[in-house]
Automatic annotation (TrEMBL), chain A:
Pfam families: Oxidored_q6. The keyword Nucleotidyltransferase does not apply. The keyword Membrane does not apply. Residues 14-163 form the NADH:ubiquinone oxidoreductase-like 20kDa subunit domain. It comes from Candidatus Chloroploca mongolica. PANTHER family: COENZYME F420-REDUCING HYDROGENASE, GAMMA SUBUNIT, HYDROGENASE SMALL SUBUNIT. Keywords: Oxidoreductase. It comes from the Bacteria. This is Oxidoreductase. InterPro entries: Hydrogenase_assoc-protein (IPR051349), NADH_UbQ_OxRdtase-like_20kDa (IPR006137), NiFe_Hase_small_N_sf (IPR037024).
Automatic annotation (TrEMBL), chain B:
The keyword Iron applies. SUPFAM superfamilies: 2Fe-2S ferredoxin-like (SSF54292), 4Fe-4S ferredoxins (SSF54862). InterPro entries: 2Fe-2S_ferredoxin-like_sf, 2Fe-2S_ferredoxin-type, 4Fe4S_Fe-S-bd, 4Fe4S_Fe_S_CS, NAD-red_Hydgase_HoxS_gsu, NADH_UbQ_OxRdtase_ferredoxin, NADH_UbQ_OxRdtase_Gsu_4Fe4S-bd, PSI_iron-sulfur_center. It holds the Pfam family Fer4_Nqo3. This is Bidirectional hydrogenase complex protein HoxU. NCBIfam families: PRK07569.1. Keywords: 4Fe-4S, Iron, Iron-sulfur, Metal-binding. Residues 80-119 form the 4Fe-4S His(Cys)3-ligated-type domain.
TrEMBL record, chain C:
The lineage of its organism: Bacteria, Bacillati, Chloroflexota, Chloroflexia, Chloroflexales. Keywords: 4Fe-4S, Iron, Iron-sulfur, Metal-binding. It comes from the Bacteria. It comes from Candidatus Chloroploca mongolica. It holds the Pfam family 2Fe-2S_thioredx. Gene3D superfamilies: 3.10.20.600, 6.10.250.1450, Glutaredoxin, NADH-ubiquinone oxidoreductase 51kDa subunit, NADH-ubiquinone oxidoreductase 51kDa subunit, iron-sulphur binding domain. Residues 441-486 form the NADH-ubiquinone oxidoreductase 51kDa subunit iron-sulphur binding domain. This is SLBB domain-containing protein. Belongs to the complex I 51 kDa subunit family.
């Protein structure tokens, strides 16, 4: 039997969704019997590999690196799951949106409410460039499944993964917060 | 009072002649999603979630505002209605900043519950992300306009049940806001009796009791109906 | 007041007229291009020429050819002057005695005039709207007398029904049927409301009628009140029409003074009072239930119908609401008979319709044409095509609730059903001509912005759906949208049409849907393949 190639991606989020995934404790060992974890913040793999079966995406699109990565994710994954509220709705990551475009937020954070002698972070190639408005991932790429929750609970993630492994994609609604 | 016989989703049911389709359906155990409706308050037919199909009528009709008639044939759950309801709830989520994760009402919120009821997995529309204010000038309550859905339940509860009319709406379109008195901070609204009926009536975390934190705000909106019913019996 | 008194007044008015009567348009359109100053200069010129005994300068209502204003006409010989400047006044007065005159002259035989049929606008540009005597001199208030003394309410309703008149506010509901419903609805009191909250961009029919012939509307309302059993009327006029309001106030005062409004009108038991209510700048108040809420002193927001105002209207009483132009047809129908009226127009759309012809068209202004005239005749013959000869692309009827009709369908006759078939509506009468340079996506965006700004915010689909649609249209227009965005736009069209609370929201998708129907390639040309996201600028 072919082992399923699983990837998890961490975009603009707090990593809580990954913590929730790790909360599955010993079931992760069962999971490991069925999948190869080919890309993840908890695995040492620098580039997103080709030919991935399933990718769980945590976090919203908040900067240019996210924009680039999410395109690779879509092109190289058979199935993309938005994992958690930031990926599904923008959530806390998008709380900055009402405050205006990125530049004015940086100004507020680093200058007005920070050190008055401060400077705006600008290190091309090292510090990613912010997008003006944080958006959920389905605004950029087609998403196959939305698993909401802040974070989604371990058992909920497990139920979804089990269903996907069994080849029966679940219907998911609501579950925000 | 005369009775009427009608069918809802093919099931024959009986109703009192002055009942609305919504009341008749609920008595028969058929659930129709609502938001601006609250037992005990007048109907405004504004949220459009309870729209139903009625045989012989080209237009969809709000169940909360449509009186039953003899032989009426009602459909409450067709694919068309489901698609519309889902779209309306998505539009609401996109309109203001509904961040369940940091909301006092999370877990006890009608909007959050509606998302489940109408089968919303995500929002297809652009988030408008308006810059909304939070007013905590009142000693006991606060209002966070980020979470307001403009259902006007607070306006009606205050006007019709408390008899005060501290609340109303200012502005129009998506710029409309619920206001207290003549658009003064709530704490300066001298007509407010601090009765808390607006808090009971609010379906989301927009109106909250000060001091409550994430997911702590539990209210019983049915108390409005209880008050109204008790008064009607006594008087 | 008796019938004889009307005739005496008319006779007195006619006998005090001087040999030469010069009409100077003093409606809003011409006033905006200096007609008031011209009016005073004409009076001064008559004075200076010592012609006071012979020449009368009369401020009249709209002559229709607004694009050529200010307009002046000499009644007896029918000479028409266009674009008249105040300093040309002496020249015009001198020309009465054969003096040389270089003022631009209009042509009554021009199709713009000759193809029109004036019923509602018959007194426009002919009488001084500020003097009831002039209205009476052309037969005014005789229809009301006739109705009160010789017809039962049922006979009046029957006449209106047989005339085939349909609501001129846009929807085309049969007027007689509406009157009959109000008449039959039980109620201690009943009300008549005239809807003068005209708000479509580019539409000014009702303003012109109110400014040019206010008594025609009062008479129409009075006849309606008698027919349905009402004793109180309200004229709801938008606040942006100060001249119409001032003239209506004057007209009401004059009618009261002559006992043509008030108690025991024409010595019958019929009482009727009319008050003006001024709108405060909300388009949605043209919707009848919102208008009623506004008159009641509440926030101008619609409520679900049924119940309809005919049964449950102002303060819960049966209420008749008709549009200005509808009321303008009433007295002529009574005077000339239902059969006369039913003989004009098409099978299902009777009479005439007033249109405000604007946009990329040579002859702009107000026209009143028989129902059934084709759009091509209106745009090409009356309108004279585009000013610079650029091909015409389409015409928007019905304002933000209407649709865009492409040139290929210009042989469509203007009647309620035909316009609906091609995806537009008759609407209140705005007719905006577009030429080949017009960007249809921008047109749709413009009307959607209007609907978004004017949405009252009560129901969710309209309040927030219009914002989403406006944003999608902006995105398409800016070349930033994908095919998925266009699909979302079309889904929203469907949602708003089916679920909005009132006509504003239900019809808001019309401009989008009709431009998509006829000019879809203009949208698709602008789509891109990949989503684009703005990065912060360094």
């Amino acid at each position: 039997m072919n082992r399923l190639k699983l990837a998890t991606v961490w975009l603009g989020g707090c990593s809580g969704c990954h913590m929730s995934l790790l909360d599955l404790d010993e079931w992760l060992i069962d999971l490991a019997a069925h999948v190869d974890l080919v890309y993840s913040p908890i695995a040492d793999q620098k580039t997103f590999p080709e030919d991935v079966d399933l990718t769980l995406v945590e976090g919203a699109i908040a900067n240019d690196e996210h924009l680039e990565l999410i395109q690779d994710v879509r092109e190289r994954s058979r199935m993309v799951v938005a994992l958690g509220d930031c990926a599904v709705t923008g959530n806390v990551t998008a709380l900055r949106n009402p405050l205006g475009e990125a530049r004015s937020i940086l100004q507020q954070v680093y200058i007005e409410h920070g050190d008055p002698r401060g400077i705006l972070p600008s290190t091309p190639g090292i510090v990613p460039i912010l997008v003006d408005q944080v958006v959920p991932i389905h605004m950029i790429i087609p998403v196959d499944l939305f698993l909401a929750g802040c974070p989604p609970s371990g058992p909920r993630i497990r139920a979804v993964l089990e269903a996907l492994l069994a080849g029966t994609p679940p219907e998911l609604v609501g579950g925000f917060g | 009072m005369a009775a009427r016989t009608l069918t809802i989703n093919g099931t024959l049911i009986s109703a009192r002649s002055n009942e609305t389709v919504l009341e008749a359906a609920r008595e028969a155990g058929i659930s129709i999603p609502t938001l601006c409706h609250l037992d005990g308050l007048s109907e405004v037919g504004a949220c459009r979630l309870c729209l139903v199909e009625i045989a012989g009528s080209a237009k969809l009709q709000p169940a909360c505002h449509t009186t039953v008639t003899e032989g009426m044939e009602v459909q409450t759950d067709t694919p068309r209605l489901k698609a519309h309801r889902r779209a309306i709830v998505e539009l609401l989520f996109a309109e203001r900043n509904h961040i369940c994760a940091v909301c006092v009402a999370s877990g006890h919120c009608e909007l959050q519950q509606l998302a489940v009821e109408v089968g919303m997995s995500h929002v297809r529309y652009e988030y408008l992300s308006p810059d909304c204010s939070v007013d905590i000038s009142h000693a006991r309550f606060g209002i966070d306009h980020n979470r307001c859905v403009l259902c006007t339940r607070c306006v009606r509860a205050c006007d019709e049940v408390e008899g005060v009319h501290t609340w109303d709406i200012a502005g129009r379109g998506t710029n409309a806001r619920v206001i207290t008195d003549l658009n003064v901070p709530w704490g300066e609204a001298t007509s407010c009796t601090s009765c808390g009926k607006c808090l009971l009536a609010c379906p989301t975390g927009a109106i909250f009791s000060r001091g409550s934190t994430v997911a702590e705000l539990e209210r019983d909106a049915s108390r409005i109906a209880t008050i109204v019913a008790a008064r009607n019996e006594r008087w | 007041m008796e019938f004889q008194d009307l005739q005496i007044m008319a006779e007195q008015e006619r006998s005090r007229r001087k040999a030469i009567r010069i009409h100077c348009c003093t409606s809003s359109g011409c006033q905006a291009s200096g007609a008031l100053e011209l009016f005073h200069q004409l009076q001064a010129a008559v004075e200076a020429a010592g012609q006071n005994e012979r020449v009368d300068i009369v401020g009249v209502g709209c002559m229709g050819f607004c694009g050529q204003g200010p307009m002046v006409s000499v009644e007896a010989d029918g000479v028409l002057f266009e674009h008249v400047r105040p300093e040309q006044a002496p020249e015009i007065i001198a020309s009465l005695d054969g003096g040389p005159c270089n003022v631009k002259q209009g042509d009554h035989a021009h199709p713009f005039f000759s193809r029109q049929l004036h019923i509602v606008r018959r007194n426009g540009g002919v009488i001084d709207p500020e003097r009831i005597e002039e209205y009476i001199a052309v037969g005014g208030y005789q229809a009301l007398y006739h109705v009160l003394h010789e017809m039962s309410p049922a006979e009046v309703i029957d006449a209106i029904t047989r005339s085939g008149l349909r609501g001129r506010g846009g929807a085309g509901y049969p007027t007689g049927l509406k009157w009959a419903t109000v008449a039959k609805s039980p109620g201690e009191r009943k009300f008549v409301i005239c809807n003068g909250d005209e708000g479509d961009p580019g539409a000014f029919m009702d303003r012109s009628i109110l400014e040019s012939d206010p008594h025609l509307i009062l008479e129409g309302m009075s006849i309606a009140a008698y027919a349905v059993g009402a004793d109180q009327g309200y004229l709801y006029v938008r606040g942006e029409y100060p001249l119409a309001i001032a003239r209506l106030q004057k007209a009401i005062a004059q009618a009261r003074k002559h006992d043509l409004l008030g108690s025991q009108i024409f010595d019958t038991s019929f009482n009727f009072r009319v008050d003006i209510r001024v709108g405060a700048g909300a388009f949605v108040c043209g919707e009848e239930t919102a208008l009623i809420a506004s008159i009641e002193g509440r926030r101008g927001q619609p409520r679900p119908r049924p119940p309809y105002p005919a049964e449950h209207g102002l303060w819960g009483y049966p209420t008749l609401i008709n549009n200005v132009e509808t009321f303008g047809n009433i007295a002529p129908i009574i005077t000339n008979g239902a059969d006369w009226y039913a003989g004009i127009g098409t099978e299902r759309s009777k009479g005439t319709k007033v249109f405000a012809l604007t946009g990329k068209v040579r002859n702009t202004g107000l026209i009143e044409v028989p129902m059934g005239m084709t759009i091509r005749e209106i745009v090409e013959e009356l309108g004279g095509g585009t000013p610079d000869g650029t091909p015409v692309k389409g015409v928007q009827t019905g304002g933000p609730s209407g649709g865009c009709i492409p040139e290929a369908l210009f042989d469509t006759p203007v009647d309620y059903e035909s316009l609906a078939e091609v995806g537009s509506i008759m609407g209140s009468g705005g007719m905006v001509v577009m030429d080949a340079t017009t960007n249809m996506v921008e047109i749709a965006r413009f009307y959607m912005e209007f609907c978004m700004d004017e949405s009252c915010g009560k129901c969710i689909p309209c309040r927030t759906g219009t914002v989403q649609m406006y944003r999608l249209l902006s995105k398409i227009s800016a070349g930033q949208a994908t095919a998925a965005d266009l699909a979302t736009l079309e889904q929203l069209c469907h949602l708003l049409r089916e679920t909005s609370l009132c006509g504003l929201g239900q019809s808001a998708p019309n401009p989008v849907q009709s431009t998509l129907r006829y000019f879809r390639e203009e949208y698709e040309r602008l789509l891109r393949k990949r989503v684009r996201i703005n990065l912060t600028s360094r």
